[in-house]
Amino acid sequence: MSERVSNESADDGSGAEAPRSDILIVDDEREHAQVMCEALMRLGHRCDVTYSLPEARGRMAKKAYDVVVTDLVMEGRRDGLSVLDTAMERVPPPPVLLVTAHADIPTCKEALSRGAFDYIEKPLDLEYFRAQVNRAAMHAGLVRQNQELRDQLADAGVGAGFEAIVGNSPGMRNVVQKARQVAATSIPVLILGESGTGKELVARAIHESSPRRKNRLVTLNCAGLSESILEDELFGHVKGAFTDARSERTGRFEHANKGTIFLDEIGDMPGPMQAKLLRVLENGEVVRLGSNDPVKVDVRVISATNQNLDEMVAEKQFREDLYFRIKGVAINIPPLRERREDIPLLIHFFIQQAAERNNKEVDGLTPEAQRFLMSRSWKGNVRELKSTIEYMVAVSPKSTLNLPSLPDEMRPTDQPAGDAPGIQPGITIDQAERELIRSTLRLTHGNREQAAKMLGIGERTLYRKIKDYELTE
User: Fold this and answer.
1) What is the largest CA-CA distance in the chain?
2) Which distant-in-sequence residues (6+ apart) come within 8 Å of 238 by Cβ?
3) CA dist 411 to 46, 197, 223, 366, Å?
4) What are phi and psi of 119, to 5 degrees?
5) Other beta carbons less than 10 A from residue 244's beta carbon
6) Distance between CA atoms of 218 and 204, rounded to whole angstroms?
7) Which entry of 169, 201, 214, 250 is 20 to 30 Å from 75 by CA?
């Protein structure tokens, strides 16, 4: 139906005007479908009408709709749920309204759990029907505006993902610079680093700043998974492929089509699966378990590992050909102990996050607590620091976090937190102060602004003491 009437405004009943939208109506009762179409066209919406599940799938494959309205039961089957599932595969998925004369609670709950925006009972109250469609159209408009804002940020080089990477050390500046450079390409990326350094964060930042950002980022941690489970997870299966395969299942590669797949801890992948993954990367095709038919996929691969793949290749534990295939560009994230100057920034960032989540007012932490946190080796890296700050924010009765706020197993006992190794009993106050300033400057790699904050003194005072004590660091 091509006729369009737009004499009335599209209002959802709340006084807010809904955007004119492209709406797909699916109903096997032709007269009922036409009534819905005319009711929406009077508000200025553009409507396409289909009368079966196959027609609806064909329409959605060719056109992106703002809202989908579908009857629940068509030709005696609950085809409306299949229409819903098809709509949920779109990126982003449109709001789906189910129209039903069978508004039993289990069916409605199932529909809502599978992503339905809402349901409307027959016989239709046209005023209520139009209000619900307008509400769905406004929701779709907000989603679209948010996506456009994200696109603008990414196009301007300020990807939403990179904003979550906190750090100003030379090592982290190099990580972000290289990640930004490769984000616009489709070259495979291998992210190296110890556990807890933020490898997945970098992978997400690359995807969010890439041309594939409108499609999915699909992640899979390969650690601890057997070959059979990995194969099923990555490639999927057809019905009857094995005993419990009661229906077909799409694998992660197909799910990530046109987007990005992130294979975390790829160094733990079993040898036979390495060969199967290599074939997919070389041919761009996956074959589901139990099937002989290859499926073409267009997926960017980002991998990560905390292992030394060079050594694993030399010891025949990792395929050399796969290594070179995934290592289009390697990004090495330094451990936290090698970028201590980032710790104050990370502390501030995690305090803000934790305070907001816990609805608490936290204005920082004492110099003693910060010196202690700066002095730790942080074997768990950023992840361990984050969990520590979250704990301190949660348990601290004060607005300023201090040493007693630390977890019990971390709290210093014999030696006060922040004592420098060179400070020993019997030395003068001046000698102790000189050694404390030297140690703090060493911790901050010479960053005097951060050192002054840690010591609880002004920068001018610190500069004067550096000169008085003839310190070079």
Assistant:
1) 97
2) 245, 248, 288, 289, 290, 291
3) 65, 23, 32, 14
4) -130, 155
5) 6
6) 10
7) 250
Token match 């040493």: residue?
Answer: 403
Tokens representing 374 are 């700066």
> Which spans in 189-308 are helix H?
199-208, 227-235, 252-255, 271-283
Place of tokens 């009335």: 8
Name the token pair of 62: 């060719």
Sequential DSSP letters for 294-306: EEE---EEEEEES
Q: What is the DSSP string of 86-112?
A: HHHTSSSPPPEEEEES---HHHHHHHH
Q: How many CB atoms lie within 10 A of CB 139?
A: 17
CB 25 within 8 A of CB 66: no
Question: Using an 8 Å Cβ cutoff, are 33 and 11 in contact?
Answer: no
Q: How long is the chain?
A: 473
Tokens of 249: 């299942």
CA distance 221 to 238: 23
CA distance 190 to 177: 15
The answer, as to whether pTM is greater than 0.85, is no
155 closest CA partner among 180, 175, 178, 174: 180
Is the pLDDT reported for residue 2 higher than 60? no
Residue with tokens 């990560």: 304
List, for residues 294-347, the tens digit of each pLDDT value: 999 999 999 999 999 999 999 999 999 999 999 999 999 999 999 988 888 889
Phi, psi (5° rounding) for residue 25?
-110, 125
Amino acid letter, 162? F
Closest alpha carbon to 401 in 330, 351, 469: 351
CA distances from 272 to 226, 252, 268, 269, 318 (A): 10, 18, 12, 9, 10
Amino acid present at 96: V
SS3 387: helix
Cβ within 8 Å of residue 70, ≥6 positions away: 24, 25, 26, 27, 56, 79, 80, 83, 84, 96, 97, 98, 99
- Per DSSP, the three-state class of 330 is strand
Condensed to tens digits (0 to 9), the pLDDT of residues 54-81 reads 999 999 999 999 999 999 988 888 889 9
